[in-house]
From TrEMBL:
Biological process according to GO: response to stress
Listed GO MF terms: DNA-binding transcription factor activity
SMART domains the record matches: HTH_MARR
Lineage: superkingdom: Bacteria
Protein's name in the database: Transcriptional regulator
Pfam family of the protein (one): MarR_2
Residue span(s) of domain HTH marR-type: 7-143
Coiled coil: none
Length: 170
């Protein structure tokens, strides 16, 4: 097999492995979301908040690629579920931050403990250099997916041409 074909085959195997991992992650997340009583996308937004800390709705929209309108709905649902709260900035009362409610988030965290232990065990099998490469890959993968989300939104939200009116002939 030529070097180019071997590389193409390796890249295809990598794509397939990543797709399987991503799909299983979505299924796992949806299972957790169903158990908690929220949607899968709301759970993912909650994870962004958990990773980032207290942020504005606008920042959460930037991180996720969702519209600010969609994020408002997410925040409303997460607040109703007791998982986040809105906090006014004492320096600028117009600014509102979204913060997780740690004691309520803990009830979700327990569902991830087994997976987290498995991932730590997996990561421990890699050298520091390999971990740095994996971190770079994961970071660039997120940036690529965020850009793809923005591209998809522009395709889906693009105004569609209006159908031509049929003329009435007498």
């Amino acid at each position: 097999m030529s070097r180019a074909k071997a590389r193409a085959a390796l890249m295809q195997e990598l794509e397939n492995a990543l797709r399987r991992s991503s799909a299983q992650g979505v299924i796992f997340g949806q299972t957790v979301a169903n158990t908690v009583g929220i949607s899968g996308s709301d759970l993912e937004c909650l994870d962004f908040l958990n990773l980032e800390g207290r942020v504005t709705a606008g920042r959460l929209a930037e991180m996720t690629g969702l519209t600010t309108g969609a994020i408002t709905g997410v925040i409303d649902r997460l607040e109703k579920a007791g998982l986040v709260r809105r906090e006014r900035d004492p320096a600028d009362r117009r600014k509102v931050f979204i913060a997780i409610v740690p004691e309520n988030l803990a009830r979700i965290g327990r569902f991830y403990e087994h997976m987290q232990r498995g991932m730590v065990k997996l990561w421990e099998s890699y050298s520091d250099a390999e971990l740095k490469l994996l971190l770079e890959f994961a970071t660039k993968g997120y940036e690529t997916m965020l850009a793809a989300t923005e591209e998809l939104k522009s395709m889906v939200e693009a105004p569609r041409p209006k159908p031509a009116k049929k003329s009435k002939r007498s």
